TrEMBL record:
Gene3D superfamilies according to UniProt: Vaccinia Virus protein VP39
Organism the protein comes from: Pelagomonas calceolata
Domain of life per record: Eukaryota
Name of the protein in its database record: Methyltransferase small domain-containing protein
Amino acid sequence: MAATVPHRSSRFTIGPLELETTAGELQDDSEDTSGRAAWTAGCKLAELLLLEDKSSVREWVAPGARVLELGCGCGVAGCAVAARDPAAHVLFTDSNTACLDTAARNASRFGTRCSTSVLRWGDVDAASKIATTFRPMLVIGTDVGYDPSSHGALVRTLAALRAEVVLVEQVRYRDVFGWFLDELERAGFALAGRVDDVGERVCCMRFCINTNDS
């Protein structure tokens, strides 16, 4: 399932952000290259945070929040958070170190408020450690649910991070989207907000998780 990629050039802008990708560069065929490009949902979230004054999605990111971007790729969404709020701290996570390098370059203008960490979906121990050390108030993920084979590992990772979650997904296949929501519900996530009318079949969702042991 290929993602829709609106920005194939190596450099592009969204509002005040100047960003780069490594889409189109030579790569190892065995490598997961999904994070090398800027995907539709991440770009749409950046536009909502930076360009849409009346967007209710803005209210989901509290001032001064500690935000973890999961599967960050080149870091579009996390950079938008940092650009909008000078008090925010953002941790970019991905399994691909080349993507983390690109995210770090894109976020370099924000100084020590932004950092990176390798995090593979399904590595619950690593996610729990990050939850303890970084203490995220919010986890954001954009276009992370398009592959059904990754849903289980993705949701286990989200649960281990023990934070509110904002997911922004481009709905390509209704069944796949529904399976993803079902997996989240089974893991104890409750839908706390949803905005469907942001364009290009992109849906924004806010989830809370029941952390009670009972």
